[in-house]
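#lab-general

N.A. 3:47 PM
ok so I finally got the sequence cleaned up, no stray characters, all 151 residues accounted for. can someone with queue access submit it? mine expired

B.Y. 3:52 PM
send it over

N.A. 3:53 PM
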Amino acid sequence: MKLRLLPFVFLFTLVLPAQDKKAYQLFDKNGKKTSYEKLLKSALKTEVVLFGEYHDNAISHWLQLELTKDIAEKSNVVLGAEMIEADNQIQLNQYLNGEINQKKLDSTARLWPNHKTDYKPLVDFAKAKNVPFIATNIPRRYASMVSKKRI
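B.Y. 4:20 PM
back already:
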């Protein structure tokens, strides 16, 4: 009985990719729909690309990674991300340089709960391509002071 269902499931999965369904839609500064190609072309003309995203949205993280890869093919890049705090730069550099492994990075740096699924691919891209990666977020202790209005 289970074997009879497999050909149907297989056929169903073959039909789905034929439908042109995008996981995202891009808009320009005027709210007009635009294409990924136009986004990339525009990004390549700038010195700094800021990528706003929702921290728990896998599609935006995927798009961020893809845009980074495509820019890096045509231009030198330096990555910076607020998902790693500035006082963890040493551990990040050690990981990027192969001095520590992922397990050691996990235990010595304060990584976000979704690091492995959403941020690690970007960090690993930087590691594989020898791209500098800057931890740009304020250290947590200072952010806490500001939020509690102790500064």
